[in-house]
């Protein structure tokens, strides 16, 4: 079998001879270079060594004693190290050259492409020219590594990374190993592929998957809305021409809140004795 068949995988080879810039390894038929900067220890002729095979920037098969978690057929979470809007994003798997996750394997809208530092769950693929690329895990692969949530997990806070995104929603794999779905109505902004998100479990399905909401819990949301209204009041010397009688469209335009959310937040401020209303105006209490 040709060494080309092992590109993107680990294999065991024998040290055939030492060279000025590293070692030549052999399978008995072909030789491949293990450069000195990819050798973790001194080797002698005849030693057997496990190496990972890849193609270097000159198009030659090379070896590394760094064995990545990821290989052809093996999946892992990998960090994004760079992005190029024309071709895709680059991933660090421990080799001298970062691996490309191509634009064809990324969402149609670049606004939800991964950023540097995001984590994607991928494997490796080798093209006809023996170049290595990353390939995203399918939904079936995620399903195969996931664990079933139970009713006890309902309403729990969860964290995880987005592994698929679409207009209708986003799919997340949580730290616990749950496979979850975030409906578009349960997210503020559409999260990026690979982005780490935090939300809460709002439903546990019969198949053990979960539905997740990224929206703040009602009490947390009220706190944020109240702070926004109070900050606006203070910016206007403690008075504003808005009250619980204001038109919904005016509230939406000024505060980006529904009238219901505005009234709840305003009611909270009034209950706390921070503001009062007169007519169609609201004032800060001195």
Descriptive notes:
There is one protein chain. With 286 residues, the chain is α+β, with helices and mostly antiparallel strands. It has 4 domains: 3-64, OB fold (Dihydrolipoamide Acetyltransferase, E2P), CATH 2.40.50; 76-137, OB fold (Dihydrolipoamide Acetyltransferase, E2P); 141-213, OB fold (Dihydrolipoamide Acetyltransferase, E2P) (Beta Barrel), CATH 2.40.50.140; 218-284, Orthogonal Bundle (Arc Repressor Mutant, subunit A), CATH 1.10.10. It contains 4 helices and 18 strands. The chain has helices at residues 139-145, 218-235, 248-255, 259-271; strands at residues 10-19, 22-26, 31-35, 48-55, 61-64, 76-84, 88-91, 99-102, 119-126, 132-136, 157-166, 169-174, 179-183, 196-204, 210-213, 239-240, 275-278, 281-284. Strands 1-2-3-5-4 form a 5-stranded mixed β-barrel. Strands 8-7-6-9-10 form a 5-stranded antiparallel sheet, with no helix packed on it. A 5-stranded mixed barrel has the order 11-12-13-15-14. Helix 2 (218-235) crosses helix 4 (259-271). The radius of gyration is 28 Å and the shape is elongated. The mean pLDDT is 92. This is S1 motif domain-containing protein. Residues 155-215 form the S1 motif domain. InterPro entries: CvfB_fam, CvfB_S1_2nd, CvfB_S1_3rd, CvfB_S1_st, CvfB_WH, NA-bd_OB-fold, S1_domain, WH-like_DNA-bd_sf. Pfam families: CvfB_1st (PF21191), CvfB_2nd (PF21543), S1_2 (PF13509), WHD_CvfB (PF17783). Belongs to the CvfB family.
Which range best describes the helical content: under 10%, 10-25%, 25-40%, 40-55%, 55-70% or over 70%? 10-25%
Shape: elongated
Percentage beta strand: 35-45%
Tally the beta strands.
18
CATH homologous superfamily grouping of the largest domain: Nucleic acid-binding proteins
Distance between the termini: 84 Å
How many domains make up the coordinates?
4
Q: Average pLDDT value?
A: 92
Classify the fold: give the CATH topology of the largest domain.
OB fold (Dihydrolipoamide Acetyltransferase, E2P)
Q: How many helices in DSSP terms? A: 4
Q: Rg from C-alpha positions?
A: 28 Å
> Which stretches are poorly predicted, pLDDT < 50 over at least 5 residues?
none
For the record, what CATH class of the largest domain applies? Mainly Beta
Strand order of the largest sheet: 1-2-3-5-4
Class computed from helices, strands and strand pairing = alpha+beta
CATH architecture annotation of the largest domain: Beta Barrel
Which oligomeric form is depicted? Answer: single chain
Largest sheet: 5 strands, mixed, barrel
Query: Helix and strand succession?
Result: EEEEEEEEEEHEEEEEHEHHEE
Protein name: S1 motif domain-containing protein
Pfam family, one: CvfB_2nd
InterPro entries: CvfB_fam (IPR014464), CvfB_S1_2nd (IPR048588), CvfB_S1_3rd (IPR048587), CvfB_S1_st (IPR039566), CvfB_WH (IPR040764), NA-bd_OB-fold (IPR012340), S1_domain (IPR003029), WH-like_DNA-bd_sf (IPR036388)
Family: Belongs to the CvfB family.
């Amino acid at each position: 079998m040709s060494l080309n068949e092992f590109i993107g995988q680990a294999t065991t080879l024998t040290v055939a001879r030492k060279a000025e810039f590293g070692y030549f390894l052999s399978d008995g038929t072909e030789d491949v270079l293990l450069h000195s900067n990819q050798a973790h220890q001194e080797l002698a002729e005849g030693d057997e060594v496990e190496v990972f095979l890849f193609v270097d920037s000159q198009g030659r098969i090379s070896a590394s004693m760094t064995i990545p978690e990821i290989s052809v057929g093996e999946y892992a979470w990998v960090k994004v190290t760079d992005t190029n809007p024309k071709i895709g994003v680059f991933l660090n798997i421990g080799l001298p050259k970062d691996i490309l996750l191509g634009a064809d394997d990324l969402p149609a809208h670049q606004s939800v492409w991964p950023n540097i530092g995001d984590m994607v769950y991928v494997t490796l693929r080798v093209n006809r020219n023996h170049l290595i690329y990353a390939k995203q895990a399918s939904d079936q692969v995620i399903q195969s590594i996931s664990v079933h949530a139970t009713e006890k997990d309902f309403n729990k806070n969860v964290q995880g990374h987005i592994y698929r995104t679409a207009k209708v929603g986003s799919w997340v794999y949580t730290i616990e190993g749950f496979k979850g779905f975030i409906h578009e109505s349960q997210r503020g902004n559409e999260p990026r592929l690979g982005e780490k998100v935090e939300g809460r479990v709002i439903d546990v399905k019969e198949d053990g998957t979960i539905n997740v909401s990224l929206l703040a819990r009602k009490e947390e949301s009220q706190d944020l809305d109240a702070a926004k209204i109070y900050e606006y009041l203070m910016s206007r010397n403690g008075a504003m021409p808005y009250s619980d009688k204001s038109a919904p469209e005016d509230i939406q335009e000024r505060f980006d809140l529904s009238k219901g959310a505005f009234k709840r937040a305003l009611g909270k401020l009034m209950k706390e004795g921070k503001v009062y209303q007169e007519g169609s105006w609201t004032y800060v209490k001195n």
